[in-house]
Design goal:
The protein is an all-alpha fold and 111 residues long. It has a domain of 77 residues: Arc Repressor Mutant, subunit A, CATH 1.10.10. 37% of the residues lie in helices and 0% in strands. It is built from four helices and no strands. The model has no long low-confidence stretch (mean pLDDT 83).
């Protein structure tokens, strides 16, 4: 008998036959950071992982290292408003969980 405090979870969209197709592999460190992040910060961090590591380059087979994610994409894909996303991005940059680069590839100290 399983103790009442023990629960087993499985994604409703789980399909072990397609484990390498249509999935984004999320790094373990992200789950370690989860308790320290606010909801919008976590959503934005997941979006960054999805928009980079979730895409495979057809030419090289490698994963994307960076991506341009517009303000409107961030709003649409996280369900959060612009002000909340701006604050979350600032926190993630300060904590060095996300890098923000300019149009010429230079690392920006703040978003």
């Amino acid at each position: 008998m399983v103790p009442s405090s023990t629960k087993s979870f499985r994604s409703k969209r789980h399909d072990s036959r397609s484990a390498s197709r249509g999935h984004t592999f999320v790094p373990n460190w992200l789950f370690d950071e989860m308790p320290t992040l606010k909801d919008t910060e976590f959503r934005l961090l997941l979006l960054a992982v999805r928009q980079t590591r979730g895409w495979q380059d057809a030419r090289t087979g490698g994963r994307k290292e960076r991506d341009w994610i517009t303000r409107s994409q961030r709003i649409a894909k996280t369900g959060r408003n612009s002000a909340a996303l701006s604050r979350a991005l600032e926190v993630l940059v300060q904590r060095e969980l996300i890098e923000v680069r300019g149009s010429k590839g230079q690392l920006l100290p703040s978003p």
